[in-house]
Amino acid sequence: MPVVIEDRPIEAVREEVIDQLIMNYSHGKLSFEAFERRLDCAMASQDNKEIAALAEDLELDVDQDFVESKRKDFHANVSPSNFQEIDYLVNIFGGSDRSGYWTVAKEIRSISIFGGSTIDFSEAKFSQLETTIKVLCLFGGDDIYVPENVNVVSKAFCIFGGVNNKAPSIADRNAPTIIIEGVCIFGGLNIKLKRTIKEKFVAFADSMKKMFN
Q1: Cα–Cα–Cα angle for 161, 166, 172, nearest 5°?
Q2: Residue 20 maps to a domain
């Protein structure tokens, strides 16, 4: 006998329903307005029965192709290989941008003096499950963008500056972990998601819709 819906883990119910919403929207069974409305409710609700009801009238179930596409899109790109031990970003009266497809070193040392850097991990390939970023911001600032499927631990401290951490504190135990250490003096450090999880769901649903249509 299956476990009654009220006793199931709410995050498992939420994931199953969101998967069904994406599956049916991508196959043209739901309008975008209905998909977005139900998605908002599924993400906000704390009631298993309310969440499950959002998919009760949907015809299509998730298939293996969907599962494989979601795995590729939602899991961080981790590929153990030859990797650089230390990578330097030095910005003095200037700035730099590390983004796109790039291989993450085991340790990144970022020095910003009257300057700043942008470090974007959204499309990066992680060579290790743990990466340390050591920052020094002196009259400068760094922006760090992370995907929602990595763990972020901030240990940086500030003197007449600030650290604004809007990244998730825990994703999955097997997901990459970014540890941020260092000091900001008359400077700042912004750590934030490149996209919200809702934006990620909508983008994935739209990509699936294009593939099926």
Answers
A1: 130
A2: yes
